[in-house]
Specification:
Elements: E1 58-60, E2 68-70, E3 82-89, E4 97-104, E5 109-111, E6 119-129, E7 132-133, E8 140-144, E9 149-150, E10 154-157, E11 162-164, E12 169-173, E13 177-178, E14 185-191, E15 199-206, E16 212-216, E17 224-234, E18 239-240, E19 247-251, E20 260-261, E21 273-275, E22 277-282, E23 286-290, H1 291-294, E24 305-307, E25 310-312, E26 314-322, E27 325-334, H2 349-352, E28 372-379, E29 392-393, E30 396-399, E31 402-406, E32 414-419
Parallel strand pairs: 1-8, 11-19, 20-27, 21-29
Antiparallel strand pairs: 2-5, 3-4, 3-6, 6-7, 6-8, 9-13, 10-12, 12-16, 14-15, 14-17, 17-18, 17-19, 22-23, 22-31, 24-25, 26-27, 26-28, 28-30, 31-32
């Protein structure tokens, strides 16, 4: 067999074959005594390089892997059907081929193996007539973008088994990010069991500034134990983290009408609220302020109720949850102008506030850091059922050791200012 005149063309566009690529083979010999052409000899075969349908220089996000490459078609003389081979390399010279696939049909789209992100790749194709390969096409490139990674979020607040009131806010630290991250969203879930088979609250919010993201639980929670978790995602890059570890918290619903009032007028819950707590600061002393103390924010200043030769403007009170029941009492008396640090150290409540049996179960009660308590003031002298105008403030539920103030944008709302353990002074 004489194949020395077989010509394989260089790169050409679709349906283009030049005259220079055509040649005639020598006469094809016949099998002795038959006059038939010898099997396996292909005469006058000319193959052009195929076109590539996928765009050159494409920028592909890592999330959009695996990549699909599409070849066009080419032309060849002869009667054998053409098949195609795709090659992918990390360099334009194709010295490091990382993927190859043969036996493809014209116009085929091939899903290639997932490639390492953050790199540029080159690909080419060639047609084959039987075992005869045609020329490779001119290479085209594509770039796989860097990988986007998010760390698993961590539950920040409430912490494990923390006691909360009816208003529950969930807070997570913002996740760590790698790569060209898009909009990060946080999905918060609350369930009534650690298995999360019954989810009672499910909300997704965008990442917030300041290093953490929070959401207010809008579901009506009952007294008892709940669990919460959070998950982060970047939909634009197809990244979703696992959920954080499930963290429990306790709901202790407070209703002043259901509380037991010790050593004070038991009708406290029915009194009109004519004052609003404006700040609660835990420091060397428990510093509680409210608008009616000085007549701030257009609220009338509370007058003193008679007490001996003088008067008492208000009494500072505390509500504690003891054995799943709320008890309240206001034993600390303030006359007009008495410094608010006269409430004493937050560490000495048991000694300075509730030191004998007059306060029932509150005797010797010392709130622990992080414990949910209620703080309020009542007009006049409440101690030992003293003289009062029967007016009170709201009862603010706080976690012992955390400072609160009224949100200036809304007198009904409160925001956490700082989280600190009272200093022992």
């Amino acid at each position: 067999m004489d194949l020395k005149h077989l010509t394989i063309c260089g790169p050409l566009m679709l349906l283009v074959v030049t005259a220079a690529c055509e040649s005639k083979n020598a006469a094809v010999p016949t099998a002795p005594g038959t006059g038939a052409a010898v099997q396996g000899v292909v005469a006058d075969v000319t193959i052009a390089s195929p076109t590539l349908a996928s765009a050159d220089g494409a920028q592909i996000k890592n999330v959009n892997q695996p990549v699909t490459l599409t070849i066009g078609s080419t032309v060849a003389t002869g009667t054998r059907p053409l098949t195609y081979t795709i090659e992918v390399a990390t360099d334009a010279a194709f010295t490091n081929i990382v993927y190859t696939k043969s036996g493809l049909a014209a116009g085929a789209s091939q899903v290639i193996a997932t490639l390492p992100p953050g790199a540029t790749y080159y690909w080419r194709a060639r047609a084959e007539s039987g075992s005869l390969p045609g020329p490779n096409s001119k290479p085209r490139s594509f770039t796989i973008g860097p990988q986007v990674l998010l760390s698993t979020p961590a539950a920040a607040s409430p912490s494990s088994n923390q006691a909360l009131g009816a208003q529950v806010t969930l807070t997570t630290s913002n996740v760590q990010k790698t790569g060209p991250v898009g909009q990060v969203m946080y999905r918060f879930q609350v369930a009534d069991s650690s298995s999360f088979t019954n989810i009672v609250f499910d909300s997704t919010v965008p990442e917030q500034s300041g290093g953490s993201t929070s959401v207010s639980v809008t579901a009506n929670l009952n007294n008892g134990t709940y669990w919460w978790r959070v998950q982060a995602s970047d939909a634009s890059n197809g990244v979703t983290t696992p959920y954080s570890a499930a963290t429990s918290f306790q709901v202790q619903l407070f209703n002043l009408a259901d509380a037991t009032i010790e050593n004070n007028d038991p009708s406290l819950a029915s009194w009109p609220q004519t004052a609003t707590i404006t700040s609660i600061i835990f420091d060397y002393a428990l510093l509680v302020d409210f608008d009616a103390r000085t007549g701030a924010n257009g609220v009338a200043q509370w007058p003193e109720a008679g007490f001996g030769a003088g008067g008492i403007q208000y009494s500072l009170g505390l509500c504690g949850n003891i054995n799943n029941h709320w008890y309240c009492s206001a034993p600390i008396e303030f006359w007009t102008g008495r410094p608010i640090d006269s409430a004493g150290s937050p560490y000495a409540i048991a000694q300075n506030w509730f030191y004998d049996t007059r306060w029932g179960p509150l005797k010797g009660y010392q709130p622990a850091n992080g414990e949910l308590v209620g703080i309020y003031v009542a007009q006049g002298n409440e101690r030992n059922y003293g003289n009062s105008y029967k007016e009170r403030s709201d009862v603010v539920l706080v976690q012992w050791g955390q400072n609160y103030a009224v949100n200036s944008a809304s007198s009904a709302g409160r925001r956490l200012l700082t989280s600190k353990v009272p200093s022992k002074k």
